[in-house]
C-alpha cells in the first residue's frame, strides 16, 4: 500500500504513478495530492514517475493533531524521498507547498534533487515586520483565522472558488472550469482536518523562509499568475530575487488556480523544464 510511517508514527499516503524520472508534487494548503490530477496523468504519459504526498491531516493521511509546523512538514517530505529512495527528483510545490519545499531545502539540502518548481508561491515571508515591510499586516492574518473559526465551510468555499479563480471572467479558459470541477475542489478542501487547516495556516503566515532561499542551488522555475489574489505577484518577484539564477514565468491572465485553468500551458512548461 502507498503509505509510509514518519518518525512520530504518523501514516502518510502518497500517489505513485508511472515510471521514469521522479517528479514529486507538494500540494496547496487544505488540498490533498489529488489536486495534481491534471498534471500527473499527462506527465506520466510522457514517461515520468509522478508522486504526490497527502500532507498530514489532508486527504488519506493520518490526522495526528500535531506536526503542522513547517519543520515537521519538511521532514515528512524528506522521509518520503528516503522511503522511496528517490534521487534526481524534480520537486514541485504550489502555494503552501512552495513554503514546505523551501524549508525542505533549508533543512535537508539538495542532494536528492535535480530541480525545483514553485507555482503560485507564498514565499519568502508573508507577515509584515520591521525587517519585512513588504509583508501583509497581522490584522489580515487574524481576520482570516477568525473567519475560518467562525464558519470554515463558507470561508473555504469563498477562498477555493471566488478568490482561487480570481477574475475568471477575463479568461478564455473559464469555459473549461465547470461547476462540477469547482464542487470537486471544495470537497477536497473540506476533507482536510480542521486542526490541520488552522495550524497550517498559522505556520504559513508566521514562519519566515528568507533564510531557506539561500539553500536553492539547483535550477529553479517560478510560475505565477499576474491576477493571483491568494498570493500576490510580489511573492513570486521577491522569491525570484532571493533565489540566485531562478527563472520567473508570469501568466498574465492567470490567478492562483492556474494548475487547473492553465493546465496545458503549465504542463508544457514543466515538461520543458524537467527535460532541459
TrEMBL record:
Keyword terms of this UniProt record: Hydrolase
Gene3D superfamilies (alphabetical): alpha/beta hydrolase
Cross-referenced Pfam families: Abhydrolase_1
The UniProt record lists the keyword Repressor: no
GO molecular function, one term: hydrolase activity
UniProt xrefs under SUPFAM superfamilies: alpha/beta-Hydrolases
Positions of the AB hydrolase-1 domain: 22-262
Entries under PANTHER family matching the protein: HYDROLASE, ALPHA/BETA FOLD FAMILY PROTEIN, NON-HEME CHLOROPEROXIDASE
Protein name as annotated: Alpha/beta hydrolase
Species whose genome carries this gene: Ktedonosporobacter rubrisoli
Organism phylogeny: Bacteria, Bacillati, Chloroflexota, Ktedonobacteria, Ktedonobacterales
Amino acid at each position: 500500500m502507498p503509505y509510509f510511517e514518519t518518525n512520530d508514527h504518523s501514516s502518510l499516503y502518497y500517489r505513485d504513478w508511472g515510471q521514469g524520472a521522479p517528479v514529486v508534487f507538494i500540494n496547496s494548503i487544505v488540498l490533498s495530492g489529488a489536486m495534481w490530477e491534471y498534471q500527473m496523468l499527462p506527465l506520466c504519459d510522457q514517461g515520468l514517475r509522478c508522486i504526490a504526498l497527502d500532507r498530514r491531516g489532508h486527504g488519506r493521511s493520518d490526522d495526528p493533531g500535531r506536526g503542522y509546523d513547517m519543520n515537521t512538514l519538511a521532514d515528512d517530505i524528506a522521509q518520503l524521498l528516503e522511503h522511496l529512495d528517490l534521487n534526481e527528483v524534480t520537486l514541485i510545490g504550489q502555494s503552501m507547498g512552495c513554503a514546505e519545499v523551501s524549508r525542505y531545502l533549508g533543512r535537508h539540502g539538495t542532494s536528492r534533487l535535480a530541480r525545483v518548481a514553485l507555482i503560485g508561491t507564498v514565499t519568502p515571508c508573508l507577515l509584515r515586520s520591521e525587517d519585512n515591510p513588504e509583508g501583509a499586516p497581522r490584522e489580515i492574518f487574524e481576520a482570516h483565522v477568525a473567519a475560518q473559526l467562525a464558519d470554515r465551510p463558507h470561508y473555504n468555499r469563498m477562498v477555493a472558488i471566488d478568490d482561487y479563480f480570481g477574475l475568471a471572467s477575463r479568461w478564455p479558459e473559464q469555459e473549461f472550469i465547470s461547476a462540477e470541477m469547482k464542487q470537486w475542489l471544495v470537497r477536497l478542501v473540506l476533507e482536510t482536518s480542521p486542526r490541520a487547516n488552522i495550524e497550517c495556516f498559522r505556520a504559513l503566515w508566521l514562519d519566515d523562509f528568507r533564510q531557506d532561499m539561500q539553500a536553492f542551488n539547483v535550477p529553479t522555475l517560478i510560475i505565477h499568475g499576474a491576477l493571483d489574489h491568494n498570493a500576490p505577484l510580489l511573492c513570486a518577484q521577491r522569491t525570484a530575487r532571493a533565489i540566485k539564477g531562478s527563472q520567473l514565468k508570469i501568466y498574465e491572465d492567470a490567478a492562483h488556480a492556474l494548475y487547473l485553468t492553465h493546465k496545458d500551458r503549465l504542463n508544457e512548461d514543466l515538461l520543458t523544464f524537467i527535460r532541459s
